[in-house]
Amino acid sequence: MNTNDNSDNPGFKHYRIGDFAKFCGVTSDFLKHYEEAGLINVVQRESGYRYYPFDQSARIIEYMRLRNYGVTVKEMQGVLKGGAEDAFALLDDKAQAIRETVRRLDGLLEEHERLAAWYAKRKEKPVDWEIREVEPYCFLPHTNSQSFRKDERIYQLVRTWGMWLPVVKSALTIEPSLLRDNPESLHWGFAVPASLLERYGLPVNDAVETLQFGKALVFHFNELEGAFNMADVVAGRHPAFEPVRELGFHVTGTGLLINEMKFQNDEKGLNMGTGRFIIPIAR
């Protein structure tokens, strides 16, 4: 809010925008934004320069407090002109949103620790495999080989699930019995262990599939060339299938190819991937 003033208003000292921002611990853009919203009074002198009266610093501190709660500039006018009950109701809502954010960030940090420990093993042995019991995964399909899937239920969840990457993984499901007749049965989507979905309260609906593994061969890889080449998967040429064949196992159900990271070297024409392939097996 601009006010024309030909005097120095001796009651308060006036400051140019850079100094006022520095003294308040904010940026010049912060002051301009709040001024444009009509939340700060600014004195414009005959010289054309704008000055910020000292008394506006108290407003700045109030705005900073509300901003740290996540209160928007648009919401601030209502908060400051309303009563305490309305203000605290809004702050309660903002605090709950902060709790949700903290819970998600804690989950991301925990997953990073798991991923870092996993990667430390991959540095020693980039490609490795093991046979073990694997818990069920929940899978939200998203695309086939050429396009997004047409299922509105997916798009009710995809934003929230995407916010939980890397707890949620980008992954490809492989149903061997369907590949011979329908290569487009390969589907990329989002996968998460059922225990973590329950722990973090990720939303679900009927679009979410449950993948049961039980006994599985888990093929770990780091910077593996062509790791996510769908043609190789369809043709059974993915390196993960080699130990399955060598050990005399057969695939008993849907496999899950998990993408932790993809790397592309355009100069060498290489596409490499880091992740793991979970393949349910039996003799």
Instruction: Report the C-alpha radius of gyration, rounded.
Output: 28 Å
Helix content: 40-55%
Mean pLDDT: 90
The percentage of residues in β strands lies in: 25-35%
How many E-type strands? Answer: 13
CATH topology of the largest domain: Multidrug-efflux Transporter 1 Regulator Bmrr, Chain A
Largest sheet: 9 strands, antiparallel
Straight-line N-to-C gap: 77 Å
Instruction: Please report the number of helical segments.
Output: 11
* Strand/helix succession: EEHHEEHHHEEHHEHEHEEHHEEE
Structural class: alpha+beta
The stretches of 5 or more residues where confidence is low (pLDDT under 50) are 4-8
What is the 3D form? Answer: elongated
Please tell me the total number of domains.
2
CATH architecture of the largest domain: Alpha-Beta Barrel
CATH class of the largest domain: Alpha Beta
Would you write up a description of this structure?
A hairpin with a 5-residue loop joins strand 3 and strand 4 (50-53). Mean pLDDT is 90; it is low at 4-8. The protein has eleven helices and 13 strands. By secondary structure, the chain is an alpha+beta fold. It has two domains: 2-81, Multidrug-efflux Transporter Regulator, Chain: A, Domain 2; 126-282, Multidrug-efflux Transporter 1 Regulator Bmrr, Chain A (Alpha-Beta Barrel), CATH 3.20.80. The strands form two sheets. Strands 5, 6, 7, 8, 9, 10, 11, 12 and 13 form a nine-stranded antiparallel beta sheet that branches. It has a four-stranded mixed beta sheet with strand order 1-3-4-2. It is elongated. The longest helix is centred in the middle third of the chain and has 41 residues, at 84-124.
